[in-house]
Amino acid sequence: MLKRVKRRYLALEIDSKEPISSSELMDAVWNAVGKLYGEYGASRTGLKLIDYDAERRFLVVRAAHTAVEMVRTALASITRIGNKPVAIHVLAVSGTIKALYKKTKP
Amino acid sequence: MKRTYADLHLCPDLANAEQVLRMVNKASELGYRLVAMTVPPSFAETNVKGLLNVCKEAKMDLATRVDLKPKTPGELLKALRRFRREFEIVAVTCESKDVARQAAKDRRVDLLNFSPFDFRRRFFDLAEAELASNGLACLEIDMKPLLTLEGPSRIRLLSSLRRETAIAKKSGVPIVMSSGASGELLMRRPLEQAALANLFDLGQTAALDAVSRNPMSIVKRNLEKLGSRFVAPGIRIVRRGKDC
């Protein structure tokens, strides 16, 4: 029988002075994962954008629980998106979206 | 036990007070308890006091650090005699093998740093590690080049770091991971720094030690040594009597 896929939700904070769209962000994340781990590694992360609040510069992504450290590493390696200097910080990691929002309540 | 995190290599432009303040506040926000800033040897004591005040406001501890770049072992010894008691952390950027060997065996050196750009000048081999393990020096890895380099140069750097961390682990040389950041956008959370260490196979516990236990122990040891009560390792003055 196939094993149930376990997932983790990551709350991210975008540190940048310039506005960034969600598609630019996800492109940058995929690029970073691809650069560090290649296409095979990227395919194992199961990355997906769940929520993006441009005003709060707050982002939620989903990843396979086996790939959380890979995603964390790739996110830390991002220094610019296009020509905009940027840093992405992981605020919290959780198994459910509900618990994640509880952890990151402003 | 909860870990306390330290970043021993912040390099703000000290003439720009605003930037210093921003970086200290950012470090506090990211979860660091202690930061060390590279200070030029000629930096006046009043300026250091200013830095201490900035850190105090952000509820951070500050350690002063000097980066020595000697060309010969003799120059290194001279600089160590001059600066060791003035700074809490002494880091040596080893640009030649002779300097690297001297720095590794000298117990006044805290951190060994190697050029991230010139791979022929990374002298951390087994012999160097053996000397460092008998002394007190730690291997310092800056994260800034890992973030800023791209393509083949980053690949080569990762490969060197993988080899060096394996040697350090084998010889029992502590590893310290620092940001080396010159701006707040190059600063990362301690867990993110530890995650970046995955890229050179350091292992999670060792990586977390490299941003918490190892740097904190260097600062603790040196603060004790620089204190007025210190006599020798393990011996300190408890009370001064009239007859001594």
Give an overview of the whole structure.
The complex is a heterodimer of chains A (106) and B (244). With 106 residues, chain A is of the alpha+beta class. Chain A has a single domain, classed as Ribonuclease P, Pop5 subunit (Alpha-Beta Plaits), CATH 3.30.70.3250. Chain A has three helices and six strands. In chain A, the strands form two sheets. Chain A has a four-stranded antiparallel beta sheet, sandwiched between helices. Chain A is globular. Chain B contains ten helices and nine strands. Chain B has a single domain, classed as TIM Barrel, CATH 3.20.20.140. The chains are: A alpha+beta (106), B alpha/beta (244). The A-B interface holds A 15-16, 36, 69-70, 72-73, 75-77, 79, 85-87, 89-90 and B 30, 146-148, 184-189, 191-193, 195-196, 198-199, 204.
Query: Could you estimate the helical fraction of the residues of chain B in percent?
Result: 40-55%
- State the major sheet of chain A: 4 strands, antiparallel
- In angstroms, what separates the terminal alpha carbons of chain A? 42 Å
Strand order of the largest sheet of chain B: 1-2-3-4-5-6-7
What fold name goes in the CATH topology slot of chain A? Answer: Alpha-Beta Plaits
Superfamily (CATH H level) name of chain B:
Metal-dependent hydrolases
**Span of the ends, CA to CA of chain B:** 42 Å
Structural class of chain B: alpha/beta
Strand percentage of chain B lies at 15-25%
